[in-house]
Amino acid sequence: MTDDIYEAARARGLTRSKRGFSKTLLGRAPNYLADRAADGCSAATLLSLYRRLGELGEVELQAITFQRMLDAEARNDETRATVRQ
User: What is d(CA 76, CA 53) in angstroms, rounded to the nearest whole number?
Assistant: First the structure.
């Protein structure tokens, strides 16, 4: 889910590793991205990333992250609707 954002951040010199990305840009534990790779990041984590990218002036990556936040919220809403049925 965030692999393309990670790769773009790495290409721009914002991070050198997934551990650094997790800690510095996601605001999580160094192993967060590796542990969550299959499930994707939570909406709260994406919000942290969105804010951090804004601080760094990375508007393009911020826009991609915003779309991922919307996607994560939509999945959460679908899950809630399924559980209610």
Answer: 24
Tokens of 47: 């919000």
Instruction: Determine which helix (DSSP H) or strand (DSSP E) holds 59, and give its type and residue range.
Output: helix 59-84
Here the tokens at position 56 are 């760094």
Nearest to 41 by CA among 62, 65, 24: 65
The amino acid at residue 22 is S
Q: Among residues of the chain, what percentage have pLDDT more than 90?
A: 59
Q: What is the pLDDT of residues 37-54, one digit of tens each?
A: 657 788 889 999 999 999
Q: Quick check: 65 and 46 in contact, CB under 8 A?
A: yes
Angle at the Cα of 66 from the Cα atoms of 65 and 67, rounded to 5 degrees: 90
Q: Say if CB 62 and CB 55 are below 8 A apart.
A: no
Mean of the pLDDT values across residues 66-79? 80
- Give, as one character, the DSSP assignment of residue 17: S
